[in-house]
Write a structure and sequence with these properties.
The chain has 42 residues and is mostly helical. The protein has one helix and no strands. The longest helix is centred in the middle third of the chain and has 39 residues. It is rod-shaped.
């Protein structure tokens, strides 16, 4: 496991960082829109 972490730790961190950014960029606008609709209300 330690060898795996040494070999793939940096790669996994990079992949996780990119995935995190994609999720934030993908979901944040939708969440903001839903929040705005709830606050202003129909």
């Amino acid at each position: 496991m330690e060898l795996f972490t040494q070999l793939f730790g940096t790669l996994l961190a990079f992949v996780y960082h990119c995935f995190d950014r994609i999720v934030i960029l993908g979901y944040a606008p939708g969440c903001a829109t839903n929040l705005w609709v709830r606050l202003t209300g129909p």
